[in-house]
């Protein structure tokens, strides 16, 4: 005795449920996480620790993609994914600090503990440092100035590359929107042609049934 075959409706609902499943997000790599922390730190400090807006999260996402060396077609992280990742990193830091405060562990083995802890503490101002920790070496002034100039030059070049990448992404989005609009117009024109052709066939059929010439007595379109 053969087993009962599944009904077509059940097979259709099963295939539909499989096709509507959302793809799993690509996990964050160590490189992406590091660049996210540094990019967020730069943006957050520039805003004096104010909350980032959506366009500023977009800048963070572009910076992460640029520092990772991704192109326009690589699967880079979005601004929403960057925001959610930072929230999870903050939650993990609070959890690690709670374990340290309760004495359940003497030190944190989390890979990003020091980075996130320094991020939330912020740079220590000079006025708060002990005088013994501040070097006073006049011979290093030229070397420090040279390093500062090199850092500013590298930072400006990186920011320029990020802006160019952002402009490229926006142009690519505009091109995609234009192409989609052209395809929509072409489909709409094709649909109108099919409707007019169908109406023409109906009129011809009616004309043949009544024995009249449609080209002289009946018109199709907006001229009627």
From TrEMBL:
Transmembrane segments: none annotated. SMART domains: MADF. Residues 27-90 form the Myb-like domain. InterPro entries: ASIL1/2-like, Myb_DNA-bind_4, SANT/Myb. Residues 138-149 have a biased composition (Basic and acidic residues). Pfam families: Myb_DNA-bind_4 (PF13837). Residues 1-19 have a biased composition (Low complexity). It comes from the Eukaryota. Residues 1-26, 131-162 are annotated as: Disordered. This is Trihelix transcription factor ENAP2. The gene is LOC103497552.
């Amino acid at each position: 005795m053969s087993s009962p075959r599944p009904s077509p409706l059940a097979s259709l609902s099963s295939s539909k449920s499989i096709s509507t499943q959302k793809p799993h997000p690509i996990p964050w790599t160590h490189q992406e996480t590091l660049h996210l922390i540094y990019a967020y730190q730069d943006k957050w400090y520039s805003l004096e620790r104010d909350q980032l807006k959506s366009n500023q999260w977009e800048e963070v996402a572009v910076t992460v993609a640029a520092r990772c060396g991704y192109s326009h077609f690589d699967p880079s992280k979005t601004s929403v994914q960057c925001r959610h990742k930072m929230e999870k990193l903050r939650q993990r830091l609070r959890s690690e600090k709670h374990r340290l405060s309760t004495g359940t562990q003497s030190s944190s083995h989390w890979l990003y503990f020091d980075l996130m802890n320094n991020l939330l503490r912020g740079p220590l101002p000079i006025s708060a440092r002990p005088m013994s920790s501040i070097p006073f070496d006049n011979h290093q002034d030229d070397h420090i100035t040279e390093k500062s100039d090199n850092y500013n030059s590298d930072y400006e070049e990186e920011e320029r590359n990020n802006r160019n990448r952002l402009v490229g992404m926006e142009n690519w989005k505009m091109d995609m929107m234009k192409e989609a609009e052209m395809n929509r117009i072409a489909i709409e024109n094709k649909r109108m042609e099919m409707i007019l052709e169908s109406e023409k066939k109906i009129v011809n059929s009616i004309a043949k049934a009544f024995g009249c010439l449609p080209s002289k007595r009946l018109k199709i379109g907006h001229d009627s």
